Amino acid sequence: MSGYDDPRWCTFDQAAAKGWRVRAGEKATSIFMWKVQEKETGTYDDDGEPITRKFPLLCRFKIFNFAQISGPEPHQPHQLTDTEARKLAEPIVETVGMTVTESATGPTGYNPERDSLVVRPRVAYPSEKHYCADLMNGVLAVAAREAVIGLALPAEAEMTDHQRAQRDLRVEIARSMLAMRTGLPLSPPAAVKDAAILTLLQSDRREVFRAAKDAENIMRYALAFNPEVLPTLEDEHREQMSAAVAEGAPEMVFDPSEFQFWPAELQQDRPRP
């Protein structure tokens, strides 16, 4: 983001609280957090339950990269090892339960109707990290269908070009988020996906905000299948919500105690173990 090598960011107040100082002349970067707020309408359904209305809430915050701040320790980038990549991806793939097969010549990718993922032979990848990245691409495709209830994607054969572009945009953003977070290699999307996504974004300027929020849910949904990663995700969520409230966001919306990687509609009958 903004060309910095250091992936760490914080607000002015967060830096000040640690005794750090934003260097003179440095300019903040604006970020946006997208949340859905639910309010009662004052009316009730036939069962006497209150009828609620959902509407989006977009909050803007200004943050600084650690490279702009005096005080924090220099960033020491970590190079993901093959062993670490396997430790991350393999428990997730096993828990998700989709069938993984290898093919040297046939088409690759996730098939939602068969709940199966086709990848290249393991020996064909430059490294184990690249193989694990392809496995996680399949998991993100699963998550895009299961974690984003509002998208309501139909069967693959019934999807419109618009729906397919919406899904692809979310998966591509989630792939980028996953690569930044874990260090897994990131391969560029197919040109046809790029063109469809660009058309979608040109037709709706707010789609990127909705997609970014969904992409974060997709990434977290996927990573939450690894029991060693889940506690870290929960801590991060609480820190993010607390920081947003400290910057003036409404606490009733940015509630640190509310944490669900599984969408509410899936709480009772999740499609995965």
TrEMBL record:
InterPro entries: ArdC_N (IPR013610), MPTase-PolyVal (IPR041459). This is Antirestriction protein ArdC. Residues 2-64 form the N-terminal domain. It holds the Pfam family ArdcN. It comes from Xanthomonas arboricola. It comes from the Bacteria. One of its GO terms (molecular function) is single-stranded DNA binding. Residues 89-213 form the Polyvalent protein metallopeptidase domain.
